[in-house]
Amino acid sequence: MRKTIFTLAATALALTGVLLAGSAYAHFVPAPCDFITGGGWVLNNSGDRVNFGAHGGCKNGAFWGHVNALDHSTNPPGHLKSTQITGYLMDPEFPNARDICGFGEVSVNGSTFTTRFRVRMEDNGEPGGADRFGVRLGNGYHLSTRELGPPGPTGGGGNIQLHKPNPSTTGPVPTPTEAEMCGGLGHPGN
Question: Which is more confident, 88 or 152?
């Protein structure tokens, strides 16, 4: 049976990418804070489209954004719609990538539930084919971070833009920890 984005069955959640005691690096809120925007589609491991539109960052001392994703491996497609943004992080190993964390409403096969999510977006230049997107949900779903292009049977399409800080892109003080922002969800991985 093919695992889909919104499987309702309880599954074990791999906590890869989570900061452990003694780790050499951590994900952190960029300072000065910036913001990221993007949309497009990638293929999941089964070859089905996952469409997305997302943006996030810091604004006026708080986290800001919205995430929308549709996994077409179910009919109608499984739908993640963010309801609260709880974090915005940078990974020092991937300086063009940002993670957006929060809570979202998931709808699939006539059922709706709320879960945590963590989305990774990476801007690798224009026109966007080398940009990357991935998502991890608290129910165990994991779409590893993958390139948006080139369009075709193994690629996707779209564009992601990492924007420079401006006077309104201030983050929360004090800055929450990664665990507080993402609830223990590891980044989607590369």
Answer: 88
Give 60-81 pLDDT, tens digit per residue.
999 999 999 999 999 999 999 9
Those residues with Cβ within 8 angstroms of residue 84's Cβ, 6 or more apart along the chain or in another chain: 102, 103
Question: Domain range holding 65?
Answer: 48-181
Question: CB count, 10 Å around CB of 2?
Answer: 10
The count of structural domains within the chain is 1
Q: Is residue 5 part of a domain?
A: no
Express the helix, strand and coil content of the chain in percent, nearest 5 each.
5, 50, 50
97 assigned to some structural domain: yes
In a domain, 162, yes or no: yes
Task: Tell me the β-bridge partners of 142.
Answer: 136
Query: Are 87 and 178 contacting, i.e. CB atoms less than 8 angstroms apart?
Result: yes
Tokens 């800080």, located at residue: 165
Single-letter amino acid code for the residue at 4:
T
User: Is the separation of the CB atoms in 95 and 63 below 8 Å?
Assistant: no
Check if the beta carbon of residue 158 is closer than 8 Å to that of residue 38. yes
**Distance in angstroms (rounded) separating the CA atoms of residues 149 and 146:** 9
In a domain, 116, yes or no: yes
